[in-house]
Specification:
The structure is a single chain. By secondary structure, the protein is an alpha/beta fold. The protein folds into two domains: 8-265, TIM Barrel, CATH 3.20.20.70; 272-331, no CATH class. 32% of the residues lie in helices and 24% in strands. It has nine helices and 16 strands. The chain has helices at 22-25, 70-80, 96-110, 127-136, 149-160, 176-188, 206-211, 227-241, 251-269; strands at 8-10, 14-17, 32-38, 60-62, 65-67, 84-89, 115-120, 140-143, 164-171, 193-198, 245-249, 276-277, 283-290, 293-297, 309-315, 328-331. The strands form two sheets. It has an eleven-stranded mixed β-sheet with strand order 1-2-11-10-9-8-7-6-3-4-5. Strands 12, 13, 14, 15 and 16 form a five-stranded antiparallel β-sheet that branches. The radius of gyration is 22 Å and the shape is globular. The chain starts with 7 loop residues before the first strand and ends with a strand.
Length: 332
């Protein structure tokens, strides 16, 4: 092996050995729509962060919005102005006909340049399935190595298609050797990259992580303590021992950059006259009851309602605008 280039980036945003895949590049400016194809999954990973409301249930979400038809998916992508989409779950391949239909639909609607990547364990990734995904228009596939099947899936995808092929795994203290093994396997079987996601420490997986000796980082809520240090060890190893691209994605990036930028794009494209967009990408507005009629107003115009009790509400820029923070009542 030859010595790799230096590790580039910022621990708070991203660390890269080589370069990022396009699927990740589009996330930074909020140009990737997130399509939750189904909550059905053939595996049950102890570190899975998927909520109980979704895991194991056949539901479809687009950018945190539950939908009942695939047409709603395209409408949401148009509302966002996205240039690509990630297909996730659960495992999208448990609903293969639906996944195939979504890929074809997005390519037909938004063109060949619309970038699509997909996450799967590889359990259901037969040669026929992989070739069908590629012919439908899938650009990039990311395997999660739960079972040994993922190795053959990487090999099939690399040999039979022109998709970008790699793996994506969580990283935390104690998982360094596993990550190194995955990097070796991906390179051996023809893949091109491995993404390391900082282990999220959230309600669905907290008990399982604690039982394995992991704790939440009090300085960085919702992350497993020691994850960044573990990622650095793996990157330093890969710099000297691997020739594929390695990307570390901190959990803080997803909230402070990826999700925020996506929400800001959505909010700007769908801002209602009475709303203000916050620096976090949420929208806020005021409500006042006058003669049993609810009147919405821009918070900047609060002084127009002196003498009334007004409510200030906040929501993600979803179509439903369901408030995410307890409403605040203010007497003016």
């Amino acid at each position: 092996m030859i010595s790799r280039s230096e590790i580039k980036g910022d621990k708070r945003l991203a660390l890269v050995l080589g370069k990022m895949e396009k699927g990740c590049e589009l996330c930074f400016p909020g140009l990737k729509a997130v399509i939750f194809v189904t909550g059905i999954c053939g595996d049950n990973c102890y570190y899975c962060p998927i909520s109980k409301d979704r895991f194991g249930k056949d539901l479809i979400y687009i950018n945190e919005e539950k939908v009942s038809s695939l047409e709603e998916v395209t409408l949401e992508i148009e509302r966002q102005g996205a240039m690509g989409a990630s297909l996730t779950g659960g495992d999208p391949l448990t609903k293969f006909p639906r996944t195939l239909k979504i890929i074809k639909m997005l390519k037909d609607r938004f063109g060949k340049e619309f970038h699509i990547h997909l996450y799967t364990s590889g359990r259901y990734a037969t040669p026929d399935v992989l070739v069908s995904l590629w012919k439908a228009g899938l650009d990039e596939i990311r395997f999660h190595p739960v079972k040994e099947e993922y190795k053959k899936a990487i090999e099939y995808a690399s040999k039979l298609t022109n998709m970008r092929v790699g793996a994506e795994i969580p990283i935390a203290k104690g998982l360094e050797n596993w990550a190194i093994k995955v990097i070796n396997d991906v390179e051996k079987y023809g893949g091109s990259f491995v993404n390391l996601d900082e282990m999220e420490f959230v309600e669905p997986n907290a008990s399982a992580l604690i039982s394995r000796g992991l704790n939440e980082d009090k300085r960085r809520p919702f992350t497993a303590k020691g994850s960044i240090e573990a990622a650095m060890k793996v990157l330093e190893w890969a710099k000297l021992n691997s020739n594929i691209y390695i990307h570390f994605c901190p959990a803080s990036f997803k909230d402070s950059v990826q999700t925020k930028n996506r929400f800001i794009r959505l909010a700007k494209n769908d801002k209602r006259w009475y709303e203000e967009i916050t620096s976090y990408g949420t929208v806020i507005w005021g409500e006042v009851n006058i003669n049993d009629k609810i009147i919405r107003f821009n918070p900047k115009n609060m002084n127009l309602y002196k003498g009334y009790s007004v409510k200030i509400l906040e929501s993600h820029p979803t179509r439903s605008r369901i408030p995410i923070i307890s409403e605040e009542t203010i007497d003016i």
